[in-house]
Each structure stands twice: as structure tokens, then as C-alpha cells.
Amino acid sequence: MAWSSILKRLLPVFVFAILAVSSVESYTCVVSACNEETCPGPTTSCTATKGCFSRMMKSETPSTLSDLMLNQKGCTSDADTCSNLEFSATLGDQRTFRYKNRCCTTGQCNKENITVPSPSSEPNGVRCAACYSEKGKSCKVNATIVCTGNEKKCVEVTGTAVATSTFLLYGKGCATENACDMNTTVFDGINIHAKCIPPDGSPALKSISSLPVVLLLLKVLL
Fold first, then answer.
1. Which domain holds residue 70?
2. Which CATH number do you get for residue 69?
3. Is the pTM of this model over 0.85?
4. How many Cα atoms sit within 13 Å of 59 on the Cβ side?
5. Would you report the helix, strand and coil content of the chain in percent, each value rounded to 5?
């Protein structure tokens, strides 16, 4: 059979497959952004091929005047990879941060609102050095905080501006485990890098400080 005849028979199959894939991957997502738990007013929509997302983040301090909140919904762009992520952290000066991102891949799947849980007040036995600064890439540790709830890791956090990479904030405190070695963008303008550090008064630190005593005992025994 001639190649031309084979190609003519296969061409409709290729066209049908392309149309089928396109119809499966294309759908609409809800689009909204506001500084409230539920965005008021009518929402718009976008056409997605990669997915929809719903994102909520809150930054709270003892003074409610400096609290921040961002509630977003939309389409995941071709350049991004959407991933489900939820974490929280409590830094020095009683600054708490909570973040939640949810991804989905069906039409209007991000229509329902998401929420971030309130911070727990139940101690979990972990203590961390705590500080916070917006004036330099370090801060003097002036407190030790008792971690609560699922925040069972001690972290060191650095924030820089997305557009200019200039320094914005630095802090230490408690966080959930998934905040370790994390890089993400918050409030559409701050790159956050977090890494886990040893807890305050950890066994590892205690064993190092007691090393001279152990060596002295070995010397006496030998």
C-alpha cells in the first residue's frame, strides 16, 4: 500500500486525537482577589489548561493594624507548577503566618472558599529561639518561645522582594515541618526562604557542650 494512502487514512485519526485532548485540557476557573475571607461582588473566569488554584494567606501581629490577608483564585499559568501546600509559622514579636494553597483540574473546581485554621494554643514540648527584624539580615535573639500545635520545628526565615531581591525581613521561631527548606512567594511580592534549625536546648547542643566533661572522665579512667 502506498504511503500516501496510509497517511490519508491516518490523518482523520490524528485530527480527532488532537481535538479530544484539547477539549479535555481546556476548562474555566474562578478568578478573584481580595483582602477578606470571602471576596465580595461578582467573580470573573479564566480558561485553564494547567489547573485552577485557591490560595489564602494571613500574617498577624498583636497589633491588628499591621495584619495582612490575601485571598486569591485563578488559573495556573503555563510557566507555573501548582502544588498543594499548607504551613504555618510563629516568629518573634508574636508574629504568626499561615498559608494554604489548593490545586484542582476540573471546571470551576476552585469555586468553593478555603480557610486556614486558627493557631493552636496547645504546647507540643518544643522550644525555639525567637526574633524578628526588618532592618537587617539577622536579629538578636531576645526570647525563647514555646511551640504549639503542629509547629514542631524551629526555623530561620528570610524574606526578599521578588522584583529587586532586596532584603525585607528576617526571623526565627516555630513552624510546621513542611516549612523546612521551603521557597515560596507570598503576598505577590515577597520571596520567603525558610530552613529548619536545632531547637533551643536540644540534646545535640547539650551533648556538644558536655564533651569536655566526658573527655576528663575518660582521662581519669584510663
1. 26-202
2. 2.10.60.10
3. no
4. 11
5. 25, 45, 35
